[in-house]
Amino acid sequence: TISLKGLREVTNVNLSRNTFEGSLDISLFPNRLKIIDISHNHLSGSLDFSRLPPPIEKIDFSYNRLNGSLNLSMIGDAFVIKTLRLNNNEFSGDALISVDVWKAENMDFRGNKLDNVFIRVEEFHCRDEDG
């Protein structure tokens, strides 16, 4: 298990392109974490995304062996996630995602075993071109 618990002040973690194996416990992420890249490893197991620290903006867990369902329905509420890369893992079933379309810039779920991706848009404003 990768643990970042003792790194309370850390805001940016890049552990990509290593040969890390085992599971990933999101509840052990530092509370101030904004950017995490653990892509291109051999991590496996399911993730509890409800345990993400709210200031997180960029997540890259791509190219691992993470599995289970994707329930990201809480992301639109208190989070400012701009980048969410979960591509090339082993997630399966239906993905439930909430996003604020003004914050989300890059979401990638390709290369998984997902049946459907359901996206709930949190906020949508139409602009009147005439003023």
TrEMBL record:
<dbReference type="InterPro" id="IPR053213">
    <property type="entry name" value="RLP29"/>
</dbReference>
<protein>
    <submittedName>
        <fullName>Uncharacterized protein</fullName>
    </submittedName>
</protein>
<dbReference type="InterPro" id="IPR001611">
    <property type="entry name" value="Leu-rich_rpt"/>
</dbReference>
<dbReference type="InterPro" id="IPR032675">
    <property type="entry name" value="LRR_dom_sf"/>
</dbReference>
<dbReference type="Pfam" id="PF00560">
    <property type="entry name" value="LRR_1"/>
</dbReference>
